[in-house]
Amino acid sequence: MHGIQMTMKEEYTDFAMQKSLELLAVDSPTGYTAQAAEFVVKEFSALGFKAQKTVKGGIIVDIGGPDAPEGSVLFAAHTDTLGGMVAEIKNNGRLRITNIGGLNANNTETENCRIITKFSGTYEGTLQLINASIHVNPEYSKEPRNFDSVEVVIDEPVFSKEDVEALGINVGDIVCFDPRTRITASGYIKSRFLDDKLSVGILMGLAKIIRDEKPELKRHVYFYITVYEEVGHGASGSIPENVSEIVSVDMGCIGEGLQCNEHQVSICAKDSGGPYSYDITKALIEAAISADADYAVDIYPFYGSDVEATLRSGHDIRHGLIGPGVYASHGYERSHKDAVRNTLKLLKAYTTR
User: What is the CA radius of gyration of the chain?
Assistant: First the structure.
């Protein structure tokens, strides 16, 4: 029972954390993911695995393994994140934005951001409440925060719509928010967009284990790093023909009524899309137990995953969902090195003999 635990070297957890840190530094709101995809291709290629881009911009990584009667398994994680898009250039030189994915104005207010123009470079700004000075606005604390009540204040001398247009900023330009990534001495990782770049780093860690230790794989394994998960159609296509099972490796939910914490790997039994495969969920639990991984089983009340997009697109596959425990989802998120280690333990046990 403890053999897998003994062979899980700390370097693999450290490697997964480091690659997550590097990927978090690459802006990639849904629709603006090319640089992050290039990073993913480069890293998996450096580990010796074939990484190929799909037409839509995702990456399929062939990890190898035998052709088993039950078919191949694919692990899906996503590198697209929440973000914003310029929806209107106001007459006063401020920007109204629309959210990409589930970005929430309540926890994005006062965050630094970058406006990525299509032809004129990048500009900095800050998302602020309209009339944001408390000494001027007596209703500051009472006003609702939504994307009609906040605006991007551009860090350039602009005072009119014409001033902004002269910079080359236009409707449809991407707005990227500062992730503010930190790893503490106690092992916590804090950042926006741990959902789901932490799990992409974990899959890189698993690839390193497979490369270095050359364990016997139970069946053929693929990784799929998607780029449209946050808007619901990330893994809806480009599934290799022999795949019969997909496990989403996404963030594990933490909150009232749930068991998981930031040190565990979470196994999801059901989310907004309904129950996951009973057999796959059971097998994931068995793998966690065999690897002596600290885990929790939970039901996520407001959640959807890449594998559900695969099912809705008509693929006949079994499905599951796991991920490191992440607190404050879609906000300033937090997890721990322990959760990364426990997720790696489970994945190694699930894929190898």
Answer: 21
- In DSSP terms, which residues pair with 336 in a beta bridge? 188
* Single-letter amino acid, residue 323: G
Same-domain check for residues 94 and 126: yes
Question: Are both 249 and 331 inside the same structural domain?
Answer: yes
* Mean pLDDT calculated for residue range 276-292: 98
pTM above 0.90, yes or no: yes
Query: CA distances (Å), 214 to each of 42, 106, 209, 252, in order?
Result: 21, 47, 7, 28
Distance (Å, whole) CA 112 – CA 106: 14
Q: Are residues 32 and 98 in the same domain?
A: no
Q: Is the dihedral of CA 339, 340, 343, 345 positive or negative?
A: negative
Cα gap 210→143, rounded to integer Å:
53
Q: Which of 43, 151, 229, 230 is catalytic?
A: 229
User: Can you read off the two tokens belonging to residue 207?
Assistant: 């690839």
229 assigned to active site: yes
